[in-house]
Amino acid sequence: MKSFGATHSTRSFWLATSPLWAYALCFFSVFVCYQLKWSTIYPQLSPAVVVFVFLTLIASLIIVGSERLIWRTPVALPDSWWTGSRVKWATILIYAATLAEWVHAGGIPLELVLSGADYDYSSFGIPTFHVVVFGVYWFLSIHWFSLWLRGYGRNFAFYSLTLLAIDVLTVNRGALLQALIAFAILYVARTGAGLKALLKIAGIFAGVVLLFGYIGDARMSASGFDPETTILVVGSASDDYNADALGTGPFWIYLYASSPLGNWQLNVSEATTVHADAWTFIRLEMLPDFIGKRLTDPSVFETSPALVSSALNVTSAYGRAFYLMGWSGCVTVFLYLLAYYLLTRVMFGRTEYFDSAIATMAAGASLMTFSNTLVFSGFVAPMIVAIVFRAICRIRRRTPCKTNEVGAASLGQLE
Questions:
Q1: What does the pLDDT average to over 27-55?
Q2: pTM of the predicted model, to two decimals?
Q3: Nearest-CA neighbor of 357 among 372, 379, 338?
Q4: How far apart are CA 345 and CA 361, in angstroms?
Q5: CA distance 400 to 13
Q6: What's the rounded Cα separation, in Å, for the pair 22 and 40?
Q7: How would DSSP label each residue in 97-129?
Q8: How far apart are CA 285 and CA 114, in angstroms?
Q9: Residue ranges per domain, the chain?
């Protein structure tokens, strides 16, 4: 197989893997999506929200533009510790752990959903054990896909997709979407943003749209609702949405993409702020949720930000921050994103796991349009796993797990 390169020095790589570029692109896309006005329950965007969003986009793009000046020296990535045999046995162990979780849940979640059983992913899995298993399989799925792109053989792609299938079988749509975004980022980074690559990615995400709509309709049908009308009623579809021609799939995606912005705007419009203290804000908006929830008084969760609909309960990265501390909370979350990105770039800059760690960070940043992913277990757990693997790498080699800087001309393509 032809390798797509083993450095992170090309312009397309820096642009494609930048979490700030992903953040800017996704927030702008959601802003455009909001203007479709397919739902009648959303408030009009206020100048304050529009200005804040575009200021963060401008700041992000300025930093992206300066990255090539800051990290301009071509750097080669180390050879990987992973071999075909190690990948195979790691996959077997992960599926054995997943099987234990399916037994604990009373069956394979996808089968339970399609059969009409009451299933909620938020309560799936063996406590604590599930966070570890998820972090390992999700991060390795991304890392092995990255190694396939670097020319390590088709087996790495096969086992990467085999791990990705766990998200489908557990009906973890958020993790599946995050993984597909990371895959797309890595693919564009290694192949360049050519027309062929973009068409492939567009085709995959079109399929994901249909899959999301199908799963959503299946869950509605299994719960005894009419799948052709229920989501349109819940989302208060406007006359601008042609359900006869488009079906329900695009409307599902529209609601997922735009409702967080609508909820955030509703809180701004109603000036819904509880003026929480700094420690409460840190526990809820900066610490990993599996830590913050254990340090926070349960009474804090008795109230929540205003919602355009009880069925649409996410508020973007800034909705709860505004609810807790107003605009200062929103600014703090954005600055936290910048600090998180800088730390990731520096920590993994010349390691085997750079590609997969920065793609994980970029996928998480792209989903900040939904919520503050920087504190979610689904994002934090894979990042912790990446840090652990990096530490193991350093211990195994008894030297910093890095390679020397090399010139771009010396980096050849593998066949």
A1: 93
A2: 0.84
A3: 379
A4: 9
A5: 24
A6: 29
A7: HHHHHHHHHTS-HHHHHHTT----GGG-SSTTH
A8: 35
A9: 11-410
